[in-house]
Design a protein that fits this description.
- The protein is of the alpha/beta class.
- It has a single domain, classed as TIM Barrel, CATH 3.20.20.
- 40% of the residues lie in helices and 17% in strands.
- Helix 3 links the parallel strand 3 and strand 4.
- Helix 1 packs parallel to helix 2, helix 2 crosses helix 3 and helix 5 runs parallel beside helix 6.
Length: 208
């Protein structure tokens, strides 16, 4: 059975944001402060490193009863017992992933416009990651989506969706105001000096 997921404060990992700090320590600080979902994204790592680190993250997320999503890699997600995977437009098609993983896995898909969103949902996506809302420093080939286009995607589909790209504690409320279920945040959490304080600010914003 699929876990119940709170998409409101969705942490996406990126080693480049950590300024040399240990990933697990940073993620735990975020979890302790109120992150509701974690995606492990490490595009450059080989399979052995991915598996070892994903195992540790799974144990950590279980400690806080927060689901773990793996970026791209179905094999790693299955191997560590993660809650699901997140797929980009250039990754394995959602329909194929659904056939391989079955109905109990969460599958998220990146969508940059309403057409991609509708297609992903038709192929079985459980949620959408929509961006880059404000532009992004972590990816160099993604166009800015903007809040109006985020609203357009919200009108096109009924599944949960999160904004991603340049989202911080200061603009998080604007993303929620579009009807998004939450925000996937990378440097807005992990690159900050006081990760816990930033996450607590996000928690306070969503509770208003």
């Amino acid at each position: 059975m699929k876990p119940v997921v709170d998409y409101s404060i969705y942490l996406v990992t990126d080693e480049a944001c950590l300024h040399g700090r240990p990933l697990l320590e940073c993620v735990e600080e975020a979890l302790a402060a109120g992150v509701t979902l974690v995606q492990y994204r490490a595009k450059a790592a080989d399979g052995g490193v991915l598996y070892a680190e994903a195992c540790k993250l799974k144990e950590l997320c279980d400690k806080y009863n927060v689901p773990l999503i793996i970026n791209d890699r179905l094999d790693i997600a299955l191997a560590v017992g993660a809650a699901g995977v997140h797929l980009g437009q250039d990754d394995l098609p959602c329909a194929v992933a659904r056939r391989l993983l079955g109905e109990d896995f969460i599958i998220g898909v990146s969508a940059h416009n309403p057409a991609e969103a509708v297609q992903a949902v038709s192929e079985g996506a459980d949620y959408l990651g929509c961006g880059a809302v404000f532009g992004t420093a972590t990816k160099h080939d993604v166009a800015k989506l903007g809040l109006e286009n985020l609203r357009a995607i919200r009108k096109a589909v009924a599944v949960p969706m999160v904004g991603i790209g340049g989202i911080t504690a200061d603009n998080y409320a604007e993303v929620l105001a579009t009807g998004a279920n939450g925000a996937a945040i990378v440097s807005g959490i992990l690159a900050q000096d006081d990760i816990g304080a930033v996450v607590k600010k996000l928690v306070a914003t969503k509770q208003k």
